[in-house]
Write a structure and sequence with these properties.
This protein is of the alpha+beta class. The protein has eleven helices and nine strands. The structure holds serine. The site of serine (SER) has 11 residues, from strand 3, strand 8 and strand 9.
Length: 337
């Protein structure tokens, strides 16, 4: 299943369940001076999570473009990317845990409408409780109602299972879904599960956040007036899972781009190839949202990405062939954007 098919299945699945499909918002936040780029699917929806009426209703589904450039130096390994897409279904004061969990599971496992993942390769986490909110028994019960055995449900602390965009804004406990990449991990004790996640034998593929709280200056100050659901499933990871690859660099999202980079280079260096591919893709998405290279803020980040990418392309001896990468990216993403 290629990445375009995953996106379109996701949107269709939730559209059929009453969600309005909305296009990705720009990478450049409209009314949020706290970040230079959208860094999570929920960011453009913050006003609606806080109670403002969304013109498309209370059930929304989208695939949101995001940029994170905090760890540029790590790019080149198998896990870091400066641009990514978050698939998300949203309840803005409408359904809550029951539907969110049921639909996440259905989408992951249904062969007809979803991804058809093997149920025996899935693991689930819930919030263990603290001074802000109690143990999430309700989510546990709902998972068990889907037929998940109790020993595949792990309760974790806020550090893992409380999601907020930063020190301020809507937040809440979450429940995550994990997938066994090798297919032979099997049942795990609590400790073994944590270790398997650390070793990346088991990876997180989806996060359901039950956003009914609000944070101010780093402290949870109470409940919002409405109960929301913020879900996030990273397209790159999902594509890697569906294509049986350890990294999105080996999936159709990057396949043609990386082979072109290899063709044009006489030096072989996986890390540099990935830097070129990652950064030029992000740069193109930034430019298409109106960002231009400059000496400050967003423009500076774009300039930095281009500089790093071109420098890596020189190290690979691609030299003046750099521009021939552009049409490959335009082609790959033109159906969705
Ligand atoms: N906001 C959550 C995340 O980014 C779920 O979308 O993981």
């Amino acid at each position: 299943m290629d990445s375009n098919e995953i996106r379109s299945r996701f949107l269709k699945f939730f559209e059929k369940r009453g969600h309005a499909v909305i296009p990705s918002a720009s990478l450049v936040p409209e009314n949020d001076p706290s970040v230079l780029f959208n860094t999570a699917g929920m960011q453009p929806l913050v006003p609606y999570l806080l109670g403002q009426k969304h013109p498309m209703g209370q059930r929304i589904v989208d695939v949101q473009k995001c940029v994170r450039t905090g760890d540029l130096d790590d790019i080149g390994d198998s896990r870091h990317f400066s641009f990514f897409e978050m698939m998300g279904n949203w309840s803005l004061g409408d359904y809550f845990k029951e539907e969110a969990i049921k639909w996440s599971y259905e989408f992951l496992t249904s062969k007809e409408e979803g991804l058809g993942l093997d149920k025996n390769r899935l693991y689930f986490t819930i919030f263990e409780g603290d001074e802000n909110a109690s143990f999430d028994q309700e989510s546990k019960d709902i998972w068990m109602k889907q037929g998940i055995p109790e020993n595949r449900i792990y309760a974790l602390p806020a550090e893992d299972n409380w999601w907020s965009p930063g020190d301020n804004g809507p937040c809440g406990p979450c429940s995550e879904m994990f997938y066994d990449m090798s297919g032979n991990v099997g049942d795990l004790s609590h400790e073994e599960f944590l270790q398997a996640v650390k070793d990346e034998r088991v990876i997180e593929i989806w996060n359901d956040v039950f956003m009914e709280y609000e944070k101010k200056d780093g402290k949870v100050v109470g409940k919002l007036n409405q109960k929301n659901v913020d879900t996030g499933a990273g397209l790159q990871r999902m594509t890697a899972v569906m294509q049986g690859k350890q990294t999105a660099y080996d999936t159709d999202l990057f396949g043609e781009l990386i082979s072109k980079i290899k063709d044009l280079s006489s030096v072989k260096n996986e890390k540099l190839e990935r830097i070129v591919a990652d950064h030029i893709r992000t740069a193109i998405f930034m430019v298409s949202d109106g960002v231009l290279p400059s000496n400050s803020d967003r423009g500076y980040i774009l300039r930095r990405l281009l500089r790093r990418s071109i420098r890596a392309s020189h190290a690979l001896t691609m030299n003046n062939d750099y521009n021939s990468l552009v049409p490959i990216i335009l082609n790959k993403y033109s159906e969705s954007y």
